[in-house]
Amino acid sequence: MLKFKEKLYEVLFTILAFSSLLFLVGIVFVLFWQGLPIFKEINFFNFIGGKYWYPTHDVPEFGILPLILASLWITFGAMIVCVPLGIGSALYINEIAGEKQKSILKPLIEVLAAVPSIVFGFIGMVVVAPLLQKLLNIPTGLCAFSASLILGIMAVPAICSVTEDALSYVPRSFREASFALGANRWQTLTRVIIPAAGSGISTALMLGMSRIVGETMTVLMVAGGAAVLPTSFFEPVRPMTSTIAAEMGEAVIGSAHYHALFAIGLVLFLMTLAINVLAEIISRKYRLKLGLSR
Amino acid sequence: MNKILVTSLILAVLTLNASAASKIIMEGSTTVLPIAQAAAEVFMDSNENVEVSVRGGGSGVGATSIVEGTCDIANMSRAMKGSEVQKAADRGVIAKAHVVAMDGIAIIVHPSNNVSALTKKQVKDIYTGKISNWKDVGGIDAKIVVISRDTASGTYEAFGALAIKGQKVRSDALTMASNQQIATTVSTTEGAIGYVGLGFLSDKVKAPTIDGVLPSKKSVVTKEFPYARPLFMYTNGNPTGDVKKLLDFIKSAEGQKLVDEQGFVSLK
């Protein structure tokens, strides 16, 4: 009887563990199934490399290059904001802050991650954009710069918390050995601790990056939504995610526009997949280099 | 106790089904959709034996399905094309148009903007990318921040048809999800130009005249204002029974109040 129960639980948990795999396979299947038909209308290179996105015009054009570049452009800007902030706060929490400060700071930064993205978007639209418009004297505050700034702030908690974990996993013996050799705190930090935590830090950056690339609501509200090739941070742009969000509701099911939106989803999925695979490769390489088993 | 409850529930469901004798299907334009939906809801409240279902899909879908006989009322934001009327006639369907509301689109700019008159051509040039600076239309030397709607919106479709004649909106135009969002952004952006339904005009934005005509309910109803169009519901022949009742309701004072509430221009 006991054995049967054990078996039952084993099967149950196996099913649960594999269910996310099932969902993943399902999602990938639907993306390909609904996305690929667009390539009957337009060839792959004209889709990826086309400069004009006019999906509902009489003669529709499905060029998603402006959308891809806008996503990359905003991600690039956001990384400039979130990397120093995220890693900097993690270093402070791990190296300088006392126990008391740490016990306040870390949970607070994690609360930032709990703020819904629509709230960030709303604040961006109502507060940040008009403010930037006045301060920088630009035609409109709804542009790549505002979007990058807000997305960067949104990604700070993910980066900070994973980086801090990585730093705290570095064995104390590393630090002690470094001090014993006569290195000062700065040398220990830059030459021993950070390289030792490298795999964790790069994982943190990649996690932050996938969050930025996939973020939808905030960019929909703040980036301005103009499907042009980005040339400056102070021009409105239209990333892939907000295009799908804005247009899916009204695209006629089964139309070329509908399939094109799925194909954008597919491109987006492949991009985040590439980021995650890269993160995995980097973190493995670091682990080998340092001879850490973790 | 439970048994009684279940029995009465089953009975309730059965009577509900039995009383919903008549079903009206409305299909077509997403522009007309909010009017149809609002009207259907109020109509069903007072006519419990009628079930009205409203579907979108676009004006073209509406036209096709009235011809195929798969809907009772086709909602259309444009008149039926000659080819559609012909197709209907071939199948013995006499498409009859009912104007249920007017749709008017006003151009808006920031209140501090000194431009208070634009021509249709200027608006078209601004939106298609030929004019990019306010000084070219009599304003100060500043970049025009062009704001448009998402391609999914009915207002976008109407603006495309009425103001830029099916040409493409410049690709560097900002796109927004709602009339309200455009109004708010224009009110906080000095160089902005946008377009909204008449219901969204306020003292926070300025509406220049178009070819000398101020946008107003009156100028839209009389069609003096250029960016105005009627919204239609088509039936097969003269409507009868519940379909007639529903259309009469939409054209009544109460129905037209709903039209106003949805941001369109009522006929009365």
Which structural class fits the helix and strand makeup of chain A? Answer: mainly alpha
Q: Which fold does the CATH topology of chain A refer to?
A: MetI-like fold
Q: What spatial form of chain B do the alpha-carbon principal axes imply?
A: elongated
Distance between the termini of chain A: 39 Å
Q: Order of strands across the widest beta sheet of chain B? A: 2-1-3-10-4-8-6-7
Mean pLDDT of chain B: 86
Q: Percent of residues of chain B in helical segments?
A: 25-40%
* Biggest pleated sheet of chain A: 2 strands, antiparallel
CATH superfamily placement of chain A = MetI-like
Detail the poorly predicted runs of chain B.
16-20
Strand content of chain B: 15-25%
Mean pLDDT over the residues of chain A: 89
Distance between the termini of chain B: 55 Å
3D structure, described in words:
The complex is a heterodimer of chains A (294) and B (268). Chain A is an all-alpha fold and 294 residues long. Chain A is 75% helix and 1% strand. Chain A has a two-stranded antiparallel ribbon. Chain A is globular, with a radius of gyration of 23 Å. Chain A starts with a helix and ends with a helix. Chain B is α/β, with parallel strands linked by helices and 268 residues long. In chain B, 39% of the residues lie in helices and 23% in strands. In chain B, the strands form two sheets. Chain B has an eight-stranded mixed sheet, sandwiched between helices. In chain B, α9 (241-251) crosses α10. Chain B is elongated, with a radius of gyration of 22 Å. The model of chain B is unreliable at 16-20 (pLDDT under 50).
Fill in the keyword field for this structure.
heterodimer; A: mainly alpha; MetI-like fold; two-stranded antiparallel sheet; 1% strand; B: 268 residues; alpha/beta; D-Maltodextrin-Binding Protein, domain 2; 2 domains; eight-stranded mixed β-sheet; two-stranded parallel sheet
Helix/strand layout:
The complex is a heterodimer of chains A (294) and B (268).
Chain A: H1 2-35, H2 44-49, E1 53-54, E2 61-62, H3 65-96, H4 99-114, H5 117-136, H6 144-169, H7 172-180, H8 185-196, H9 198-214, H10 217-222, H11 240-247, H12 256-290
Chain B: H1 2-19, E1 22-28, H2 33-46, E2 50-57, H3 59-68, E3 73-76, H4 82-90, E4 95-109, E5 117-118, H5 120-128, E6 145-149, H6 154-162, E7 174-176, H7 179-188, E8 192-197, E9 209-210, H8 217-221, E10 228-236, H9 241-251, H10 253-261
Parallel strand pairs in B: 1-2, 1-3, 5-9, 6-7, 6-8
Antiparallel strand pairs in B: 3-10, 4-8, 4-10
Helix pairs in contact in B: 9-10
